[in-house]
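Board notes (copied after class):
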Amino acid sequence: MSERSPAPGGLALVESLVNTLDIESGADTLDTADGRARLGLTDDEIPAARELRESLRAALLAHAGHAPHRAVTPLGELLTAAPLLVAVDPGDGSARLAPADPGPLLSRVSAAVAEALVAGTWNRLKACEAVTCHWAYYDRSPAGRGRWCSMQVCGARAKMRRYRAKDE
């Protein structure tokens, strides 16, 4: 839905997962072989991926100051199943948080969230406030107060609704 550029670093994975569902049309790319392949998922992993997606969406709505879109398993509860380790590069001594098992999607998302926390970018990943959208986007606005994934679509619709409501 968005014309925005992808989120930085590992947040691109989180953004990509959340945006596998088009709420307005109901189309879910996790239903397609290509969609599953892009995230490295097997058919058996789809239910867990959907649960993770909706928990992430609720967290991204919270980043934008909105209530969860529906009852979900709290993201923190899901992430406890994906432990992270401190990986230290023997060459230069640099350290990073890495998943104990880098294969599963949950582990990769856990590492991406940790990376974003360290970088200070986690709260900039948000979900569009439009109830027919809730698309994930990275808020690059200077004040960090972006509300919609797209000003040309969701923002314009919201402003038009507000304008029409004034006339009634």
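Comment from the instructor: Strands lie at 84-88, 95-99, 125-127, 136-138. The two ends are 30 Å apart (CA to CA).
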